[in-house]
Amino acid sequence: MKKSFQHSSKPSRKKKFGRKNSKKPTQVVSGDKGEDVVATASATRQTTAYLKKLFSEVGFSIDTKKGQNFLVDLNLLDLLERSADIQPDDIVLEVGSGTAALTERLARAAFRVVTIEIDSRLATLAQDRLVDADNVHLVNTDVLARKNKLSPDVLSALDEAEKERLAVDKKGRFLLVANLPYCVATPVISNLMLSKPFASATVTVQYEMAERMTASAGHHSYNALSVWIGSQCRTEIIRSLPPAAFWPRPKVDSAIVHLDLEEHRRSRILDLPRFHTFLRNIFCHRRKVLRGVLISLAGGKKSPEAVARIDAIYEKFNLERNIRAESIDPDTFVKIEHEFSLP
Question: Lesser CB count within 10 Å: N end or C end of the chain?
Answer without folding.
Answer: C
